[in-house]
Write a structure and sequence with these properties.
Elements (H helix, E strand, L loop, with lengths): L1 E5 L3 H13 L4 E5 L2 H5 L3 H4 L3 E3 L9 H6 L1 E6 L7 E2 L2 H7 L4 E8 L9 E8 L4 H21 L14 E2 L11 H6 L2 H10 L7 E4 L5 E4 L7
Parallel strand pairs: 1-2, 1-3, 3-4, 5-8
Antiparallel strand pairs: 4-6, 6-7, 9-10
Helix pairs in contact: 1-6, 5-8
């Protein structure tokens, strides 16, 4: 089976490399940036499956309709469809979620589900990524080795969220004065590297980055 792996995030590339190293019976090809994918000749490789883990650009309709395209989304779909799913869940106080692999369609994050596994959102963003790598690898391996079965999403339960912009990483004076410690802690930890870190603006116009925090007592 030929499998094209497309992604640029470290956790996604780590999953792809684990799959490549542990499943020699499959023909894997890995693309790690958007420029190479845009110039890639899909017809020449003719993959049976394309993995778009962690990919944030819109995939053209002619690709999702012709190929079996799979996405890994770190939420319990149909909840938290859309951008920045980890950050949007953490800032909402979600601690127990799922990682979901689904078939991509023209509708955002709404395709049939192939697999889902528990994902804990406690700890640092790095620790969450480490979980996501392990979970994503195991789920993908099971999908490739077994019969692919699809389960439709219940659209009546869907929630949608926008991708967060770097400007939203600011800890505003209003938040500091009105929000509790857990909210501020969650905002700081959800914006650990490689995301735009939480920051406060100083009187000289600079940004003071806040990369980690803990709650006393």
């Amino acid at each position: 089976m030929k499998i094209l792996c497309v992604g640029y995030r470290d956790w996604a590339l780590n999953i792809y490399n684990k799959l490549h190293n542990s499943m020699p019976e499959f023909d894997f090809e890995i693309i790690s940036n958007e420029k190479d994918f845009n110039s890639y000749n899909l017809e020449s490789f003719s993959p049976e499956i394309i993995l778009f883990y962690g990919w944030s650009s819109i995939i053209p309709k002619n690709i999702t309709e012709k190929y079996n395209c799979l996405m890994l989304h770190p939420s319990a779909l149909p909840k938290y469809r859309g951008g920045s799913p980890l950050q949007n869940q953490i800032i909402d106080g979600v601690l127990d979620s799922k990682a979901t692999i689904f078939k991509m369609t023209n509708e955002l994050d709404a395709g049939d589900i192939l697999a889902a596994s528990d994902l804990c959102l406690r700890g640092s963003i790095g620790e969450i990524f480490n979980q996501l790598e392990d979970i994503g690898f195991e789920m993908t391996k099971e999908i490739l080795l077994g019969d692919i079965k699809y389960q439709k999403q219940d659209n009546s339960l869907a929630t949608h969220h926008q991708r967060r912009s770097p400007e939203l990483s600011e800890l505003t004076l209003e938040e500091i004065l009105n929000m509790d410690a857990m909210y501020l802690y969650n905002k700081i930890r959800m914006l650990g590297d490689p995301y735009p870190n939480a920051f406060i603006r100083t009187r000289d116009g600079k940004k003071l980055l806040i990369k980690c925090a803990e709650i006393e007592g």
